[in-house]
Amino acid sequence: MVPTFEAYQGIIGDLKKAGYHVNIRKVGKFEQQIDVLTENQERIFWLALKSGFFDYPRQIGMAELATKLGISPATLSEIVRRGTRRLLEHYFKREL
User: Could you give the CA distance from residue 16 to residue 12 in angstroms, rounded to a whole number?
Assistant: First the structure.
């Protein structure tokens, strides 16, 4: 999994230049589902979920996920915190 199509193209290109045979098994595209999160928040939550960030035990940590996304762990932490708040506010909107 990669955060952008450009990152995907770069990785495939680098592997081919290094002489590796690349066999792509599946290509999917992120599509925003609901208007609760920003597109960036939803993309990051989707990648975090698919990477095992929310698993117990975690399959990927904050620092490694941030590196995959090309952002700092502090920035990722803030995005996750704000996104979680938006999700919770949406979920509990009937009670607010």
Answer: 6
